[in-house]
Amino acid sequence: MVVSAASAHGTAEAAKQHAAAIENGNAIVVVKEFLENTAPDKVEAAARRLVAEDAVYISLNFDNPELKEIEPWTGTARGPQAFSSTFARVAKYWTIEDFTVTDMFGSGEHVAAFGSFTYRSVAVGTSFRSPFSIHAKVKDGKITYFQFMEDTYASASSFRQSGSWTVKTDPAAPAYEVGKAKR
Fold first, then answer.
1. Per-residue b/e over 110-135, b at no fewer than 16 CB within 10 Å?
2. What is the largest CA-CA distance in the chain?
3. I want to staple 29 with a disulfide (CB 3.0 to 4.6 A). Which of 21, 49, 110, 167 is the partner?
4. How does pLDDT run across 86-137, given as a tens digit for each residue?
5. Which residue numbers delimit the SnoaL-like domain (predicted)?
6. d(CA 160, CA 101)
């Protein structure tokens, strides 16, 4: 591939502008940069570069010991390591077939991101598609808060090999079975 001097300068200039946007704390650019670098071979460096030492990461809930047994990264954790270990574990437990950010917008230090993903359980082979939402805060070019939400029932169910629940949601209706065993 041949790159002309003008396009090489354009690429270098775009990279400079991107780096300046991160350094100046452009919240959307910082969160976008992190999300683009969550692959297992990139996430640790991205977390060190883009996440504050005291950052809070909330994954799916504040604290649920039973869910943590299924998905060990869930709950509240702190620091760049919480970010990198979460994304590394996700890639270990599931094959990421798709992860698409459809909308991202912000105001000041706040960023909201929305999209969907499709993951396939490595252990069981079950795939699921889920919407996701992120609320992040960025100060001085570093993520200080990151709350990630998804369809937790679908993600945990992707590991189910057998079993079901009998639930009763409506006081006036009979109980019913959900999560019937795979056939």
1. ebebebebebebeeeebebebebebe
2. 74
3. 21
4. 999 999 999 999 999 999 999 999 999 999 999 999 999 999 999 999 999 9
5. 32-145
6. 27
Residue 60 belongs to a domain: yes
SS3 141: coil
- Split into its structural domains, the chain has a count of 1
Cα 7 to the center of its chain, rounded Å:
33
Residues 6+ apart with CB under 8 A from 54: 78, 79, 144
- Provide the domain limits for residue 104: 28-160
CA 110, chain centre distance (Å): 16
Asked if the structure places residue 82 within a domain, the reply is yes
Distance, first Cα to last Cα, the chain: 52
12, 115, 143, 147 from 26: Cα distances, Å: 19, 21, 11, 18
Residue 155 lies in a domain: yes
Quote the distance between the C-alpha of residue 109 and its chain's center. Answer: 19
- The span from the CA of 140 to the CA of 26, in Å, is 8
Are the C-beta atoms of 78 and 56 separated by less than 8 Å? yes
pTM of the model: 0.82
CATH code at position 97: 3.10.450.50
95 vs 42, 86, 176, CA distance in Å?
16, 14, 32
